[in-house]
Design goal:
- Strand 4 and strand 5 form a beta hairpin.
- The chain has a five-stranded mixed beta sheet.
- The mean pLDDT is about 90.
- It is built from four helices and five strands; from the N terminus they run βαβαβαββα.
- The protein is an alpha/beta fold and about 100 residues long.
- The chain has one domain: Glutaredoxin (3-Layer(aba) Sandwich).
- The chain starts with a strand and ends with a helix.
Length: about 100
């Protein structure tokens, strides 16, 4: 299940385990294309936490991670960035991150 971040607990959410974060905006076409892929990944990988961060609402978090273009997808492992993708990414490529 995808969790939409709406509060100040981002660091708490990413500090342990494997966490996939989708930085997006509602007006962004490529973000809307990748949204269903993120949802599918969250349904298939039960041991991965999936979080969506709206950059218009959470500019502070976007700035902290240097998000300049969206969508940007970051994979955190125990709070550390493991992988990062800017722009649309096909599901097959995203799933390889977890092999």
């Amino acid at each position: 299940m995808v969790k939409h971040l709406t509060n100040e607990n981002f660091n708490e959410e990413i500090k342990s385990g494997t966490v996939l974060v989708d930085f997006y905006a509602d007006w962004c076409g490529p973000c809307r294309m990748v949204g269903p892929i993120i949802e599918e990944v969250s349904n298939e990988l039960k041991d991965v936490k999936v979080i969506k961060v709206n950059v218009d609402e959470r500019e502070d978090i976007a700035k902290t991670y240097g998000i300049m273009s969206i969508p940007t997808i970051i994979l955190f492992k125990d709070g550390v960035i493991d992988k990062k993708q800017v722009g649309f990414v096909p599901k097959e490529v995203l799933m390889r991150w977890f092999d």
